[in-house]
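Q:
Got a chain?
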Amino acid sequence: MRILITGAAGFVGKNLCTFLKSIMKNNNQLYPGLKIDEIYEYDIDSTQEELDIYCSKADFVFNLAGVNRPKNEAEFMTGNFGFASQLLDFLKRHKSKAPIMLSSSIQATLKGRYGQSEYGKSKLAGERLFFQYAEETGNRVLVYRFPNVFGKWCKPNYNSVVATFCYNVANDLPIQVNDPSTELELLYIDDLVEEMIAALDGKEHKCDYDGLKPVEKVDGRYCFVPTTHHVTLGEIVDLLYIFNKQPQTLVIPDIPDGSFAKKLYSTYLSYLPKEKVSFPLKMNVDSRGSFTELLKTTNCGQFSVNISNPGITKGQHWHHTKWEFFIVVFGHGLIQQRKIGSDEVLNFEVDGSKIQAIHILPGYTHNIINLSSTEPLVTVMWSNEQFNPNHPDTFSEPVEVK
C-alpha cells in the first residue's frame, strides 16, 4: 500500500507518519495484515508537481492539511476548502480509486459556540466537497470531525491550550485560566492515530451527529474516534502541577490505563527542558551503605533501593501490617525471617545473577546480610505503604535468637 499524507509536517501528520514508518521498520509485527510500501509526505514546502505524482500513485490518502491560525479569516476558506478542491481535482485527473480521509473539525457542526466560526464554515465547505466527490466517483470517503487534539509534538502558544499549559508548567512559566470550570472535549493523539490505522484496514468507526455529539451508526455519514475525554481547565491545571512536583514528592499519581491523567502525563513530560529530565534523589548514607527512596504511589506504596557494604547486616526489625518485596539485583546475600514468638528462621540465599523476589512477611522480624567480602549488595525494595514517620510500624528485634 502506498499512502499519501497531506499536512505531513503538522502535529497530527508528524505523529501519523512516524507511526506508519515504525510499522514499516518493524516488519509490521503489530499489524501483520497491513503492508506499507511507500509513504508520500506532502506539506507547505512541497511542490504541485510532487502532489500530482503522489495522487497518481497513492492507494490511500490522509488529508490533514489545513489552516488553523491565518492572518485574516478569509484565509480559512482558501486554505481549507481551496486545497481540498485542488487535491480532489488531482485525484480525479488520475482516475484514482484511493479511499480518502478528511481531517475536519467539530466546529463544522456550526452548533453552540461554533455557530459563527469562520474556521467551522471552511471545514463544512470542505466536507461537502468530499461528499460530492464520493457521489461522483463512488470512492470511499472518510470524514472525521476532530475535537481538540493533544499529545507530544503539539506546538505550544498556537492553537492548543493543553500544549500551552504543558509547556508553561514544565518550564516554570505562568499560565492564565479565566474560568477553571470551562469544559473541553479532548482527543489524545495516539487514540487518533490508532483510528487512522484502523481506517486503512476498513475498520473505521462510523457515526451521525446529534448536535455536537457523535452517535455511532454502522452506516453513518461521518467517522469518529470513539475515545475522547471531557475535562475542565481546572482539572488539567491541577494535574499538571501535581506532575510538576513529582521530583520533589516522588509520588506518581493515579494514572490508570486509558485514563486522561495517563495521557496528559505523557504529554507533559514531552515538554520538559533538558535540565529537568534528570533530578537528584536523597541518599541516606552511613558506614553500612545507603538507602534511597525512588518512587512513591498514592495507593500502592513505594519503591526504594538499599546498598549494603561488604559483610554488613541490615534490618533486624519487624512490622505489624507493612509488608515488602526484597529483590537483590547485584551481589550475593542472605535474607532471613523469623515469625515473632517462634524460633524457626527462614533463610533465602539471593544473588544478582539469579533475580528473585522475596516476600517480607508482616509479623516476621527480618534482615539482609551481604555475604561478600568485596562487593556491595544492591537490593530493590517495594513496600505496600509509604513510610510515615509518625506511624513507622517498625520494631527492632534480631532475627537469630541466641
